[in-house]
Amino acid sequence: MKIDIHNYEEFMLSFIDGELDDEQTKGLMLFVDQHPDLRRELDLLQATKLPVDTKLGFSDKVSLYKKEGWNQPKIPVLRRYYGISIAVAAGLLLFVALFIYPWKKPVIPHETAFSGLPAQHRKTTALAAIDSLAKEMTREHQQRQKETAAARYHPHENKPPSLEAEDRKAVVKHQRPEQTKPVLPAAIPDITVPAAGNNHMALNKNDLPRQLPLVDITHSVAEEQIETSKDSVVTDNKNTSMALNRPLENENIVQKVDEWRKKPAAILENIHQKGIKIGKTTFAFNN
Amino acid sequence: MTEKEFNSCVDLYADGLFRFIVKNLKHEENAKDIVQNSFEILWKHHHELLFEKAKSYLFTTGYRNMIDHLRRHQKVSLVESFPENTKIQDSVPGDIRSVLQKGLDRLNEIQRSLLMLKDYEGYSYEEIGEITGLNASQVKVYLHRARLKMKEYLVKMENVL
Prior knowledge:
The complex is a heterodimer.
Chain A: H1 8-17, H2 22-34, H3 39-47, H4 77-80, H5 82-100, H6 119-136, H7 139-152, H8 165-173, H9 219-225, H10 250-261, H11 268-274, E1 276-278, E2 281-283
Chain B: H1 3-25, H2 28-44, H3 54-73, H4 94-105, H5 109-121, H6 125-132, H7 136-160
Helix pairs in contact in B: 1-2, 1-3, 1-5, 2-3, 3-6, 4-7, 5-7, 6-7
């Protein structure tokens, strides 16, 4: 701000107060040099500055000195820091209520394993449920399956025709799209491959990455799953089981196993009843 | 603030506070009481205060007590000379000093306090504002008015003398 005849008095007063910087002080001095008649005014204002009486002082300083604990009421530490103590206690309670207590995981029975669980827990719980369900498949069921299969599939009667690769493809093509896809478990319990031989669904044990308990399917179950088509090699009148002279492709089984792994275990019950269908063959799980 | 720091405050600020109060009240005993009371209040709260804030706290407390005292008593007794135990510097000619004192008496209590805080203690506009409860602009305006009044009185006295 430039000093002129209209604002010089304010600059002079600020100068007396010691509030001007170096640049402003130089400007003021220059202005006063240019206007000598204003010098007297500056001197008068300078005279209004009160002189400091450094010799005037408080004579009895000794009476003002203090000692810790002297003439001071004893304030308990807790009372002294009452406000801080309350704030810290409230903060701790809030922390426990928000972060510690809610994370106490409840014990969930496997029947309700999936209700209300977060997604990341479902897989783990599903695997555990599948394992336990697989183990729960009774010997009686297995025995029943074996008896039924033996009665139906006598090795020397109604030997199903062997299918060439082209026929197998044709069979796959004629699968009804509206038919419900096999209900596959999220994980596959260990399976035991029965000895190869007269069992039409014998699989080479060494070819399977995982072992499935295989049981010969019942005729009634097989008929439900049957694909009827003019081009189909397999008809109602023929044996519903597929005789395979060679083991199924490993890739199919591995692929199915992976699919099963991904499905939730709640559908395992369905598998238990109907089995898993691969192509036209239905595998029942048994322990 | 520790006990040691408090006692340092006594050594550093007791004289300046007393000077400020006694110049306003023009009564040594009352000024001593106010200074002692200010330090008692500082000691009472010394655990909550920092050493750097002690001077401002003392002058704020002393100023408020002084204003209360002035308004309670209203009468201001002019002291022409100080008791013998108070040593007074003679660097400034006595007649000018007395003229200035008289000029100060003609100011109101706020203008006088502002002038003393500025010239005796060297506080800035902002610091004076914190002590007196004014803002920096108000302090500047009041100070300038006070100095112009003092200048007019000096010119008047000059003419008389």
